Amino acid sequence: MSDTGLFTVHQVGSKYYFEIAKTTLNREILVVSRVSGYVKNLSFGGAGMETRPEQVIRWQLFGDKVLLRSVSYNSVASEELPVYHSVRNNNFEPIIMSFDLAAYTPDSSAVVFEVSALFTSDVPMIGPLDDDQKKNFGIGSLDGKRSIIVSTKAFPGNVEVRHILTFSGTKLPDNAVTNTLSVEMNQSFILLPEKPMVPRLNDERVGYFSIRQTDYGSPAQKADQKTYITRWRLVPKDPVAYARGELVEPIKPIVYYVDPATPAQWRPFIKKGIEDWQVAFEAAGFKNAILAKDPPTKEEDPDWSPEDVRYSVVRYITTDIQNAVGPHVHDPRTGEILESDILWYHNVMNLLRNWYFIQTAGYNPAAQRPKFDDALMGELIRFVAAHEVGHTLGLPHNMGASSAYPVDSLRSPTFTRSMGTAPSIMDYARFNYIAQPGDGPVNMMPGIGIYDKWAIDYGYRYYPDITTSAAEKQILHEAVNKHAGNPLYRYGPQRGNPFDPGSQTEDLGDDSMRASELGIQNLKRIVQNLLQWSKVPGEDYDELSELYGQVLGQFNRYIGHVTTNIGGVTEWRKTNDQEGVIFEPVPVEKQRRALAFINQQVFQTPDWLIVPAIAQRIQASGSMDQISKLQKGALDRVFAADRLTRMIEAESTLGSKAFSLEELFQRVQDEILREPTARKSSDPYRRRLQKAYVDKLLALWKDESVPQDASALAYAYLKKAQIHLGKGSAVPDAVSRSHYQELNHSISAAMKTE
């Protein structure tokens, strides 16, 4: 059995052969390795997720062998320059595997060799597991007898190989009783363009996924680091009309096909989400630049396949994963995006239900139910589809966008209808948790915003007669400078542990404290009505339990948003021809307001979360643990080592103008130990918090990774805590009295061991 395409693939019994034309040998080919068979808990995302970075290879004939060689584009130089030969010699291409030449074709125009071993061996370059996974899952050897090639498909621009690798293991993510892990993989071999696209330089003030190369052919007197954005190749059909400022269709538009497995009621909304980006491409001078289509039927085109690299597809995946993912495949030489398959997981609808309920049900009747109507769910799907398409266009998350809008503006129907909830749909702005009952018909989600249009203009505007990235550098720089300092055009990268309160996930508005206060008001309304709003006649209380957990999670997000202001630093991305600093400490009064919020909303027991009517329907016990977890988490955040370090550094340079570490310790201790200080009893919630606080001080004092000044203050405040706890030793309540005495003893015992 044979299949002809980029390579001709032959199956002879259980053996597989590649037939590669000599004209294709030495051509650069991209290899993309993905999991194709879902194994629960193996990795986030499941089927369709890449297991290795995309890599470039070439097939090379060497005597009676065909070599598979890995090509790196980390270091480059123009072939026309003498230094090119040095770059090649110092980046020698490793041989990944060698294959015996089986035959030539009758006209000697192609070579034939068996490739079975490439797909039934554990080859690190294309394998399913990294070293950490192998260690965590107790993976032993690969069993070649249970590792097989499942199928092959050849298309004009790519070849797809699906295969199963079977490992033995002792701590497996699923089906552990078998001691066997079988992972189905899909390998894509994609021919890179013969004429590479002119790469476009990255500007850190505009967010794009990018590739980085060291250019040894640069005139710079150093190993010059160049960063290029990833983008599709768009060229206007009529360059003359384009130059006149007319909207012109591209020669080859970006087309997404919607998986026919997608439920019929959601397809129109996914298509709308795709084509919502047309307005952004119009800002770059293109019309109909991005299109959504249904795939042809078998009768219309029997050869059409979603695995053909010529087609980008929104794939519908039926797992319990609550997500959608927008990856893309790009040319590592230039950043040109070649194709993209968006992974759309069925259960993303539950995630959307939870987000929309928790963030808007406090004022939005349409959200006050456990199941939304199709029209509403469709609009939520459209929102996520547009967000994921943004990733496939080259745009990363822009967490700095939402902080451009004043908090009060997000309560205005007029403002939100015209501006959405953020200047970019690529922010995690989600839904409008700030609006309140009586505000009127506010917009509840972002759309393609001002920043998105600008970012697409930066990445996709066509400049005729440009043959090198250096030739357009000044044009792009001047274009970005036009919007310098305007918060609507601000790009803020996503960080796992943010230090910039204006660049955070899941937040809205320019003031975390005010926004979170309004968000909590909505959460309080939800909690008061949660029994009714989560009710499904005849069902159990699973919905109530899930949505109450979502309330806790949303409250925890607000705590995180506010805490970032303490010791926070705002980042203003600039080039050296712009005035002002890049890193600016958050104003002192704003930091004080943030700590006051934590003291009031978190360290003072949030008793609005304690609802017996809910707790008695979802758990035998645990309410106290839930509150304690929130408070302990807040303590960990407030006293995180990196935050304390930033505060110390700010105080060393700004002096009395900085929010001091001493004030932080003092204000927290005044709140948490106010009962023993006033010789009053504590309730169980406060006692847990007080113990957690003393434990935190002890940890800060003993942990060598904590800055020395913070460790010294922790020691001092442990001493002060003993004085306060001593005052509470005479309270009549036996439990509180014993509690204060125990904490005092814990401190004394710890100090005696030093």
How many strands in all?
24
Q: What kind of oligomer do you see?
A: single chain
Tally of alpha and pi helices:
22
Please tell me how large the radius of gyration is: 30 Å
How much helical structure, as a percent, in the residues?
25-40%
The end-to-end span amounts to 77 Å
Mean pLDDT, to the nearest integer, reads: 91
Shape: globular
Give a brief outline of the structure:
The chain is an alpha+beta fold and 754 residues long.
Description of the molecule:
By secondary structure, the chain is an alpha+beta fold. The chain folds into 3 domains: 2-192, no CATH class; 239-533, no CATH class; 550-752. 36% of the residues lie in helices and 18% in strands. The chain contains 22 helices and 24 strands. The strands form 5 sheets. Strands 1, 2, 3, 4, 5, 6, 8, 9, 10, 11, 12 and 13 form a 12-stranded antiparallel sheet that branches. A 5-stranded mixed sheet has the order 17-16-18-22-19, with helices on one face. The protein has a 3-stranded mixed sheet with strand order 7-14-15. Helix 5 (267-275) crosses helix 8 (374-392) and helix 13 runs parallel beside helix 16. It is globular, with a radius of gyration of 30 Å. The N and C termini lie far apart (77 Å). Mean pLDDT is 91; it is low at 83-87.
